[in-house]
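Hi U.,

Before I forget, here's the chain from the pilot set. I'm dumping it here mostly so it's searchable later in email.
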Amino acid sequence: MVLVVVMGVSGSGKTTVGSRLAEKLGWKFYDADDYHPLENKKKMAEGIPLNDEDRIPWLCTLHDILRREDTSRQDTILACSALKKMYRRVLISGASAIETNQPEQPKEKPALKILFVHLDGPMDIIAGRLEKRRGHFMPLELLKSQFDTLEPPSAPENFITVSLEKSLPEIVLEIENAILQSEALMA
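Structure:
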């Protein structure tokens, strides 16, 4: 049973990559944007960046979804920005990650085992993608704030970084290979 969070700034391709990977593997797919409260979507549409207070309840909801799928042994992919280490910890441990906001100990057993896939690339390429996107609540003006907020994953987090400059089939294959390797290590 595997939980994967495809993460990165807005426009990095999380939904496209996550949904394609889920389709290829026959797994369940969730897009975190579908779970933003209306107030969050309004703020972003008005060009106001979200803060931790806006994001934490949303992340707790996403943790609950991942927990439910984990309990039912359902392989799942979630497309979610997960920009900060603390946000990723909330996805792993739920609200308890906020109360224990101390540095992680490598021996700690996280509540959920999640592979984070960071879609990484230069701001100009992502800006070009956002300019072409229609009907999304996230305006191009907020891209810089997303890069400013981004804390790329690092050890001891369970993650891989994939260049979004590759083709979609190459990206999906690279993630699929990483999943197979992590499953072999856990077996």
